[in-house]
Specification:
heterotrimer, A mainly alpha, B alpha/beta, C mainly alpha, A: MetI-like fold, 2 domains, flat, B: alpha/beta, Rossmann fold, 7 helices, 10 strands, globular, transport (chain A), RhesusRHD (chain A), transmembrane (chain A)
Chain lengths: 258, 277, 263
């Protein structure tokens, strides 16, 4: 590496250091202000207390089983959106008239605040995991359908011609060429859907006070366990961020280099 | 014919300007000890092959590039950022697409806080000067490339700079439009007695418009020669056909050919080197 | 939307109505009919799927009483305040991050990864800090819409044609002039899109907060209808809410669209 290049790679970690440094300084300052009594510790618990309660929350509140409960809900919702979303996208691709009629509605569904209808879902499914899963499903379905449609419609002409040159039947053409070619785009749709699903699922768990991690926060809040509530929120945000990062990595791994 | 240069008449003085850059391949010197003067009211072109550092020079004089050695002085003041006496016209599309023609031209006048009525009056004058009267309320998106460059020119002229600094403003236009716009610029320059500094790679353009031409070498860019263009004024594009014109063009091409081929060679070696490593 | 070739269905009798419109009408009618059948069948618990008559009555009842508009005003006010605060701060942060590579590398990842997280879980904290009134709802709305606006603005800054910034510099525009006369107009499309997204999430955040803990607003009305099992009323409110939400989204999009004539 040249001297200039070496100099540049040293500077690469500086922004990250600034970011992390700012966070550390912020929490240290917060701790100081609270300990000094300038901020009411019964409204904002000191960060040291929050970190301290992590351990307690993790063991006493069965965080692990809650985590898997929420994950389970996401998994079911994920499977449902994949099956119905891809099927829906294929259907719209196959029947052009249907696509023309319905595509804008599907796009509108993506923008619609589905989660606001959670009381309705509660009436239909009760205060149960199914309410949570169904809201996750409805809120997350749209991107999968649209991306599947996009992936199939955008198949490169040359690949279709290759299929034709081998005299493939319509069905073979679809399953051996178009569908595999559309997989990366479909996965983008599933990724988007999973993110919507997780956000809605955790949100609804909190709102209806049932389920895994979302319910944990609600529970701790209702018990006025302040440090616990903050700790639980931090934990859920962490899970959410890791989930998002994982999906990004998975997508990059699935996408061929182009 | 213009009298030989006297320092009292110099409006811009560039002294030993050196511009160096750090690149992935190591440091390169874009401009190497360039010194020259620009006299009041003259039209000076800086011409050179690609890679001669003329864009760097443009940015230095315009005050957009302050990381350099040597100095550039305007009316005795050293340039340390965009100077109020210098107006720049860029090579790329630079009109604001969300403003009408007249609002574009009013822009510098807004910045200095001129009241609305005065702004409009002044803007109209310059719009007329570039030949776009009638188009005041159009948007740049509705105009051709040549017209948009005229808007940019009018906008810069509206700030009434002592020196007009242009970086290949007609590069993106076709030859005929370029010649006609060149006429327009000459007309304006004559009318306003505007000191103009034009950066270009087009020899015809340079000879057509300039009083003097500064020829630069290939990287590291130095001043190769300064040529006095002794063609009668007022000039129009008609002059392109004359014999004297042809001689000047040939003379400058001679100088440039050597530099341009050095540039080409350098590029080829570079590509070979890159693919080899 | 993909352009398709010929239609393979038989041509319609009336030339005015395209096959697409007919299909849409057919789907809607099928849905309405199916709904009504389900409602009268007695398969589901009463009123889970009320008849259209009942929903219609509830809708009329809703829209003809001032009470609804009062609550609508409360919610709309909260959303507007959230969008104003979150929007302006998001814009400011986005502009700063978009204009400075170093700061962007330091801080933007935080915005990017914290953005897609459920913000409603912060509601207990908002209540502690801002009380049980509109303050906590607005705060949640601000938290929700800050991220998409900031990220859109940062991205928008980076796609501004560099030459336009040079023009500003060459005329020695000061910071305020540069932001107001160059950055913001140049970014109008990304900003409008950011606001659309921000409006969507602010709406959700504010309304969900209202359903959780409030005594005013549309969210409160919805949860109230749920608690007394007044299903026709709940359906009516949800219908109006969805129409308004989609309408607001389209309106903001249209506002952004008007600007496209110029470029």
């Amino acid at each position: 590496m040249s001297a200039a290049a070496r100099r540049r790679s040293v500077y690469d970690w500086m922004p990250a250091a600034l970011g992390i440094g700012t966070v550390v300084v912020f929490f240290a300052a917060l701790e100081g202000l609270i300990q000094a009594g300038l901020i009411n510790r019964f409204i904002v618990p000191p960060p040291s207390e929050i970190i301290g309660s992590f351990g307690r929350v993790l063991t006493e509140e069965h965080v692990v089983s809650r985590f898997f409960f929420t994950l389970g809900e996401c998994f079911v919702a994920g499977v449902m959106i994949t099956v119905f979303g891809v099927a829906g996208g294929v259907l719209l691709y196959r029947y052009k008239l249907l696509q023309q009629a319905v595509e804008t509605w599907v796009a509108a569904l993506a923008a619609a605040p589905v989660v606001l209808a959670y009381p309705l879902f509660m009436v239909i499914f009760g205060r149960s995991a199914w309410t949570i899963i169904m809201i996750g499903f409805v809120a997350a379905l749209s991107p999968v359908v649209l991306k599947t449609l996009e992936g199939l419609s955008g198949t490169r002409k040359v690949l279709i011609n290759v299929g034709k040159s081998f005299n493939l039947t319509g069905s073979q053409q679809f399953w051996k060429i178009m569908f595999p070619a559309a997989l990366p785009t479909m996965f983008v749709g599933v990724r988007l859907g999973l993110i919507f699903a997780l956000i809605n699922i955790v949100g609804v768990e909190f709102l209806i006070n049932y389920g895994g991690l979302g319910q944990l926060i609600n529970d701790l809040a209702e018990r006025y366990d302040l440090p616990g509530t903050y700790a639980a929120i931090c934990f859920v945000i962490l899970v959410s961020v890791v989930f998002f990062m994982f999906l990004e990595k998975a997508e990059r791994w699935l996408r061929p280099v182009d | 014919m213009l009298s030989p240069s006297s320092t009292r008449n110099d409006i811009l003085v560039a002294k030993d300007v050196i511009v160096r850059f750090e690149t992935a391949e190591g440091p390169i010197t874009a401009v190497d000890n360039v010194s020259f003067n620009v006299r009041q009211g003259e039209f000076l072109s800086v011409i050179g092959p690609s890679g001669c550092g003329k864009s760097s020079l443009f940015n230095v004089i315009g005050g957009l590039l302050t990381h350099h050695q040597g100095s550039v002085e305007v009316g005795g003041e050293t340039i340390d950022g965009p100077h109020k006496s210098i107006g720049m016209v860029f090579q790329e599309e630079s009109t604001f697409p969300w403003r009408t023609v007249i609002d574009n031209v009013c822009f510098p006048l807004e910045l200095i806080g001129l009241p609305k009525a005065k702004r409009i009056e002044k803007a109209r004058t310059f719009i007329k000067m570039v030949g776009l009267d009638g188009f005041e309320n159009r948007f740049p998106g509705e105009l051709s490339g040549g017209m948009r460059q005229r808007v940019s020119l009018a906008r810069t002229l509206a700030s009434e700079p002592k020196i007009l600094l242009m970086d290949e403003p007609f590069a993106a236009l076709d030859e005929q439009t370029r010649l006609l716009l060149g006429d327009k610029v000459l007309q304006i320059q004559q009318q306003l007695q505007q000191t103009t500094l034009l950066i270009t790679h087009n020899i015809t353009e340079a000879v057509q418009m300039s009083d003097r031409i500064l020829v630069m070498t290939y990287r590291p860019g130095k001043v190769k020669r300064i040529v006095d263009i002794d063609l009668p004024r007022p000039r129009t594009s008609e002059i392109v056909g004359s014999e004297a014109f042809g001689r000047y063009v040939a003379e400058i091409w001679n100088d440039l050919r050597e530099e341009a081929s050095r540039g080409l060679q350098d590029e080829e070696e570079h590509l070979h080197g890159a693919s080899g490593s | 939307m993909a352009e398709t070739g010929r239609l393979t269905r038989t041509a319609p009798a009336a030339p005015m109505f395209s096959p697409v419109t007919l299909l849409r009408v057919a789907i809607i009618l099928a849905f309405l009919a199916g709904w009504e059948l389900l409602s009268r069948s007695g398969w589901l618990y009463r009123d889970v799927v009320p008849s259209w008559l009942a929903i219609g009555k509830a809708l009329a009842d809703l829209l003809l009483h001032a009470d609804y508009y009062f609550n609508l005003g409360v919610t709309a006010g909260e959303i507007a305040a959230a969008l104003a605060i979150g929007g302006v701060s998001g814009l400011a942060v986005g502009i700063v991050l978009g204009s400075n590579r170093f700061l962007a590398k330091a801080y933007e990842p935080y915005l990017y990864y914290l953005g897609p997280t459920p913000k409603i879980i912060f509601f207990p904290i908002m209540i502690m800090w801002f009380g049980v009134g509109p303050g906590s709802k607005i705060a949640l709305g601000v938290l929700s819409c800050f991220f998409p606006v900031a990220l859109s603005a940062a991205a928008g800054m980076r796609q501004i044609d560099k030459v336009l910034i040079k023009v500003g510099k060459s005329f020695r525009a000061n910071t305020w002039q540069t932001v107001w006369k160059i950055y913001l107009p140049a970014m109008r499309h990304p900003i409008i899109n950011g606001i659309r997204l921000g409006l969507g999430v602010a709406l959700i955040g504010t309304l969900l907060a209202e359903t959780k803990l409030s005594n005013k607003g549309i969210g409160f009305l919805i949860i109230q209808a749920y608690s007394v099992f007044d299903m026709p009323r709940m359906y009516a409110m949800l219908i109006v809410l969805f129409v308004l939400a989609i309408g607001a989204n389209a309106l903001v999009g249209r506002l952004g669209g008007l600007h496209t004539i110029r470029r």
